[in-house]
Amino acid sequence: MTFEYAPAPESRSVVDIAPSYGLFIDGEFTDAADGRVFKTVSPSTEEVLSEVARAGEADVDRAVAAARRAFASWSALPGSERAKYLFRIARIVQERSRELAVLETLDNGKPIKETRDTDLPLVAAHFFYYAGWADKLEHAGFGSSPKPLGVAAQVIPWNFPLLMLAWKIAPALATGNTVVLKPAETTPLSALFFADVCRQAGLPKGVVNILPGYGETGAALVAHPDVNKVAFTGSTGVGKEIARTVAGTRKKLTLELGGKGANIVFDDAPVDQAVEGIVSGIFFNQGQVCCAGSRLLVQESVHDEVLDALKRRISTLRLGDPLDKNTDIGAINSAEQLARITSLADQGEAEGAERWTAPCELPSSGYWFAPTVFSGVTQAHTVARDEIFGPVLSVLTFRTPDEAVAKANNTAYGLSAGIWTDKGSRILAVANKLRAGVVWSNTFNKFDPTSPFGGYKESGYGREGGRHGLEAYLDV
Amino acid sequence: MAPIVPDAPAAGRPRWPTGVGNGIGSRHSPLPFSYTRRYARVVTMSTTPHVPAAHALTDVTGSDASLRRFLHGLPGVDAVGLEARAAALGTRSIKTTSKAYALDLAISMVDLTTLEGADTPGKVRALGAKAVHPDPTDRTAPATAAVCVYPDMVAVAKEAVAGSGVKVASVATAFPAGRASMAVKLADVREAVDAGADEVDMVIDRGAFLSGRYLKVFEEITAVKQACGDAARLKVIFETGELSTYDNIRRASWLAMLAGADFIKTSTGKVAVNATPANTLLMLQAVRDFRDRTGVQIGVKPAGGIRTAKDAVKFLVLVGETAGTDWLDPHWFRFGASSLLNDLLMQRQKLATGRYSGPDYVTVD
Questions:
Q1: Is position A448 within any domain?
Q2: Which terminus has fewer CB within 10 Å in chain A: N or C?
């Protein structure tokens, strides 16, 4: 007998998913005007979880109008009153965190370990944090009486459905804006449950409106003439389209787009912890993270040592049922995303990079991709340049700190980077030269509501989180 | 200050190769080629007479300078990252069949310990009886690995566990402080071994270690190892709470392994901070890397502060996912504990019967 872990599934019974859901407009759930619906499936099993109303242009009109109506009274509330609602939302999220974690895992495919220990605690933390700002805006450094913008149109991705919602909604409400939010078409459920949280918290009607739908819903929303603010997190391609749409209007825009983060490991790095950081950098949420450390830049003198230790560690990752509490790697979010990852990985192999795949068995149904490492990658390889948004790591080498910085910055993106060294002075020197919105030292993929997050170059503009995150929602 | 060594490898300090192609499948390869590549200059230094050539790192212990250079050349430990990893592994959910397996394995790994000034032959006999048959209501419960006593109690303990397969471990070398002359320490060891101890748990001279006299610590361990001879396996206690930093614990681990330790052990149980998931994880990384490098497997024993079955199972997760399943065996992993056994037994009863019994249904010794 060996020490095999018996299945330890989190119970599905803590969440009650209805067979169908409507749009959330003006405090009510309602069908789409044209009656269209779409199905949302569990990526780990392809089981249909629910049927969700699909918002069209008429629904966008209704939602924006509701948000506009609500704006006058919501923005007129004293900050301390808005704070009470946000604190209440934060507490309800905490109370319902187990339910929401299971829901998110079902709809997204990510392991329950992550939704339970990362997503949900951060969601609550974001609401708590911005609740604290609501009555202190005059001390935030944006003038003595900063004003909200109005109606915020927010479009969020499928990789952290509820967390991205929190990043968008919490600062918007704290500053006195009202919101129309479109969740991604593959992960609409947690946003709809959040609508229920808003009702539970007694949030005034129309302050938060949720419009599930596809890209065309998002396009209609950001193009709507009565919207004052557009916030988008997602791919660089869509971000550019939105920037074109918004150009020439008075809408304020923030974009948080793709990334190709460099994780730089120097020869004096704490190797065991660096390996952990590389693993969490690229395999957290199956690598479907805009700030993933998808390029490992390792000093050539320790390349073999680090790569051996990394492969050994990756071989211990447990891939499988996302609801199992011992699962480290869950499912890819959609068939479409799986196809993209597969094609980019095949391209990496075709271009001559050396492919290594973790020895793990993939479930027969659902969308799965085994943790993969490409070594012998150069700056010219597609896998070193394109965002894969999957559990695929590209390993490159460097010889000197200057070369590390040059290679790390040699990308169209600039969202995140990591530095691994025992030498404090080197951390500071290298971090100063990296053109990336977030630089982690001797850690990776650590998030906190107090810390601003955002990109350079094609990774977008504007910051979310921290005091800086208020600016995007204030008329400054 | 570290001496400046002209022949140190050019790419910074000497590094530890983990062995090319190891990890998945070939972890037993005794000498990965990267070893010779990286250590070409280190290993050509003069050999020393006092280490048996059991492994290939003999030459780094040739002088205080080379030993220091080697130990200080080990990769640093990032405390935040290490503790985060230990905590993450602590969230593994071990249920049903795996829990039953883990509880029995943990019981079989206990060094059931009494190290009190008030120890008497009666107390030690009771402990020995409990080690052989931990659960009076269930004879299927496995025996513990060993009983652990002071040297003057070894003979009593031997008699109490005679014929059972339970080992007798004895602390020695002026346990727990280790503040005595070498002659006294060795006499302590010999007394234990002569009385029939199967295992000797020595303490290192923390004063020497903290003042940078690594060779002195090394020589003490090799001398004790010699005194143990083939009769007893040697566990080397670092008192990690006194070494204080993780870098020190990693260095002490390598120092002891180089000196011939059969086991590396966290603590005496007599100071404020004893075994923790993080320091044990670090030592498990050390034995894993040492085997990759030399082919020699060394055991690990966390001691002190592990009181609940839940904690013990977390340590087994650390072992399995760090050093590997080869270490999930009483020969390679032990718990130094006294109160842990009763909680393991209560959890075992709960798993078998579906209900909790209570402290009156396990023996109090």
A1: no
A2: N
Contact A245, A223 (CB under 8 A): yes
Phi, psi of A327 (to 5 degrees): -80, 130
Return all residues near A258 (Cβ < 8 A) that are at least 6 apart: A235, A236, A290, A387, A389, A413, A415, A458, A459
- How many whole angstroms separate alpha carbon B305 and alpha carbon B66? 36
CA distance B356 to chain A (A): 21
CB-CB neighbors (< 8 A) of A442 in chain B: 78, 80-81
Which of B18, B314, B327 has the most A C-beta neighbours within 10 Å, making it the best mutation to test the interface with A?
Answer: B18
Q: Would you call B93 and A8 a contact, using CB atoms and an 8 Å cutoff?
A: yes
Query: Does residue A186 belong to any structural domain of this protein?
Result: yes
* Contact (Cβ atoms closer than 8 angstroms) between residue B127 and residue B365: yes
Across the interface, of B18, B80, B82, the residue whose CB is closest to A309 is: B18
Cis ω for the linkage preceding B6 (within 30 of 0): no
> Which chain B residues touch A309 with a CB distance below 8 Å?
18, 23
Contact A11/B at CB under 8 A? no
Domain that holds residue A337: 262-441
Specify burial of residue B127 (Cβ count, 10 A radius: 0-12, 13-18, 19+): buried
Active site amino acids of A = 256, 290
Say if the Cβ atoms of A268 and B80 lie within 8 Å: no
A 10 A CB-CB count for B3 gives: 12
Q: What's the number of domains chain B is made of?
A: 1
Residue B55 lies in a domain: no
Flag whether B127 is in a domain. yes
Distance CA A159, CA A333 (A): 8
Whether residue A160 sits in one domain with residue A297: no
Residues of B known to be catalytic: 201, 265, 301
Indicate whether A171 and A143 sit together in one domain: yes
Closest Cβ opposite residue A304 in set B20, B81, B91: B20
CB A56 within 8 A of CB A34: yes
Residues of chain B in contact with residue A443, where contact means CB-CB under 8 angstroms, are 80-81
What ipTM was estimated for this complex? 0.95
Query: Which residues does chain B have within 8 Å of residue A308's beta carbon, measured at their own beta carbons?
Result: 18-23
Per-residue pLDDT of chain A (476 residues; tens, 9 = 90+): 579 999 999 999 999 999 999 999 999 999 999 999 999 999 999 999 999 999 999 999 999 999 999 999 999 999 999 999 999 999 999 999 999 999 999 999 999 999 999 999 999 999 999 999 999 999 999 999 999 999 999 999 999 999 999 999 999 999 999 999 999 999 999 999 999 999 999 999 999 999 999 999 999 999 999 999 999 999 999 999 999 999 999 999 999 999 999 999 999 999 999 999 999 999 999 999 999 999 999 999 999 999 999 999 999 999 999 999 999 999 999 999 999 999 999 999 999 999 999 999 999 999 999 999 999 999 999 999 999 999 999 999 999 999 999 999 999 999 999 999 999 999 999 999 999 999 999 999 999 999 999 999 999 999 999 999 999 999 99
Q: Do B91 and A117 touch (CB under 8 A)?
A: yes
Closest CA to B32 of A290, A304, A8, A113: A304
**What distance in Å separates residue A317's CA from the closest CA in chain B?**
9
- The whole-angstrom separation of Cα B247 and Cα A270 is 10
Chain A CB contacts of B91 below 8 Å: 113, 117, 325
On whether any CB of chain B is under 8 Å from the CB of A273, the answer is yes
